[in-house]
From TrEMBL:
Name of the protein described by the UniProt record: Thiamine-phosphate synthase
Binding-site list for 4-amino-2-methyl-5-(diphosphooxymethyl)pyrimidine: Q60, L61, R62, E63, K64, N92, S131, K160
One GO location term (cellular component): cytoplasm
Source domain of life: Bacteria
Biological role stated in the UniProt entry: Condenses 4-methyl-5-(beta-hydroxyethyl)thiazole monophosphate (THZ-P) and 2-methyl-4-amino-5-hydroxymethyl pyrimidine pyrophosphate (HMP-PP) to form thiamine monophosphate (TMP).
Binding residues for 2-[(2R,5Z)-2-carboxy-4-methylthiazol-5(2H)-ylidene]ethyl phosphate: T157, D158, S159, G187, I207, S208
Record keywords, A-Z: Magnesium, Metal-binding, Thiamine biosynthesis, Transferase
Phylogenetic classification of the source organism: Bacteria, Bacillati, Bacillota, Clostridia, Lachnospirales
HAMAP family: TMP_synthase
Organism the protein comes from: Dorea longicatena
Molecular-function GO terms, alphabetical: magnesium ion binding; thiamine-phosphate diphosphorylase activity
Amino acid sequence: MRSDRNIENDQIKKPEGHTCKKMQKEDLLLYAVTDRHWLNGETLYSQVEKTLEGGTTFVQLREKELDEAHFLEEAKKIKELCDRYHVPFVINDNVDIALEIDADGVHVGQSDMEAGDVRAKLGPDKIIGVSAQTVEQALLAQERGADYLGVGAVFHTDSKADAADISHETLKAITEAVDIPVIAIGGISKENVSELSGTGICGIAVISAIFAEKDIKNATKKLKKLTEEMVEA
């Protein structure tokens, strides 16, 4: 049910007939976003494999520093890895690389390519995720063909310096306003994930809560269990 504050957005139409063949709502339970900051001599491939072994249900390759050639090479390897684990794999921002390697989709922010343009390039069967911070942004992304929303930062985070903090009330308002799945992102850890209970999200996206841990596989297992409990509560 929509909250009263969102009634003014009813004029924004919901998408008709769009279904994503490559993603189920359950795939978004524990969504790992890569980051090279914690490699410490290890390969990103090795770290992603460990989190997949621990039960990660979705992987986003996020590269802000690599040149296009190395980004492409990395993306091919991680895609092959995710395919083996039957886990959806999307690219952050870079639609062209996603197309070239036939990734499962793309995640874009508010300052990146608009969701409707991404859908036009990728076609109807690819996954499109969109970052949103307001009900208005969420409804517009849904209208333009997004398959899921990443909302945050729900806690303070150093991983994305430009991410504004989003109240849990706003997070809940967004989940009530849209029909597509919503995941929370930003500063989420095993210590605070339970605080998101009752917001209507279907999962969480994390970076440091997995990749900054010494035992990535075990950290993933623990966080997945806690997230399941939070979603079901």
